[in-house]
Amino acid sequence: MRKVLHASLFLLLVCFAAFSQQTPTQPQSLTFYYDYTVNPGKEDEFMNLIKLVGAPVRDKLMAEGVIQAWGMETPILRQPGGTTNLIWFSVANMGDVEKVLTAMEAQQAKLEAEAKASKSKTPSERIRETVDMSKTRDWLTIDLVSGFSSPQPAPGVLPVTRYNFVKAKPGKGNDYRRTWEKYNKPVFDKLVADGVILAFGLSTEAVRTEGNFTHYVWMATTNMGGLDKIAAAFAADRARRTEDERNSITQAFNDATEPDMARSIVTRSRIFHLPPPKKQ
């Protein structure tokens, strides 16, 4: 995720709080990300491996209520040696993370045994040929705040997602989160209510492994035009305020973060699975 964070700042959306200093007001989802760098020319094989190894496991666990959603995304901006594909799944708690990882290990062991019995290439051999494993990176994150459209996206929708990353200053987490929820969350709430965006969240690592950012905002839309509408909504929100208010908001965010550490990425979903809507 972090290796592809070299896009421009996105208005004042990079407004985050330190999770270590404030407990979420309600249970929030955990999301596990796998970052991969697929070798050139191996894109189709990577998709074949997803369908063979991971997709059956994740779809089964989603049907059982363990996985809330899962998908695979590709960044729209490439960079030498950077992440080319990221697979993710969301669950309710750490126990469910363990269920997914255990099921994945069992699936791979089964497929390895079957391939050896048939004297064919094993999944692990195929993966090593397809992916630069020295660049593989895992992340486990937690949503501090989130909002989702209702009803959920229609089948077949492949969202575009923007991730804005920021590094909060030590001891400024509570101030930053309060500022973000006061000035930015209402804009996102209205965008969700109006059907402009599919979902949004303010997140941080559940297991801290990275020092270049502490938090990120994610926002999902049906297409890239939705990002223009988000920008317009924030511009309108700031424009209706007095100059003193705008300066005060900017200062509050700057006081709580290291602005030159901010980065963004935009991804396009290639796979996006949600459980079917519950019958009323």
Count the beta strands: 8
Question: What is the mean predicted local confidence, pLDDT?
Answer: 89
Residues in β-strands, percent: 15-25%
Which spans of ≥5 residues are poorly predicted at pLDDT below 50? Answer: 2-25
Report the helical percentage. 25-40%
Brief write-up:
The protein has 280 residues and is an alpha+beta fold. 36% of the residues lie in helices and 24% in strands.
Question: Secondary-structure map with pairings?
Answer:
Layout: E1 30-36, H1 43-63, E2 67-75, E3 85-91, H2 94-117, H3 123-130, E4 137-148, E5 160-166, H4 173-183, H5 185-193, E6 199-205, E7 215-221, H6 225-239, H7 243-256, E8 263-273
Antiparallel strand pairs: 1-3, 1-4, 2-3, 2-8, 4-6, 5-7, 5-8, 6-7
Helix pairs in contact: 1-2, 1-3, 4-7
Structural key phrases:
disordered N terminus; alpha+beta; 280 residues; single chain
Can you characterise this structure?
The protein is built from seven helices and eight strands; from the N terminus they run βαββααββααββααβ. It has helices at 43-63, 94-117, 123-130, 173-183, 185-193, 225-239, 243-256, and strands at 30-36, 67-75, 85-91, 137-148, 160-166, 199-205, 215-221, 263-273. The chain starts with 29 loop residues before the first strand and ends in a 7-residue tail after the last strand. The protein is 36% helix and 24% strand. It is elongated, with a radius of gyration of 20 Å. The longest helix is centred in the middle third of the chain and has 24 residues, at 94-117. With 280 residues, it is α+β, with helices and mostly antiparallel strands. Strands 1-3-2-8-5-7-6-4 form an eight-stranded antiparallel barrel, surrounded by four helices.
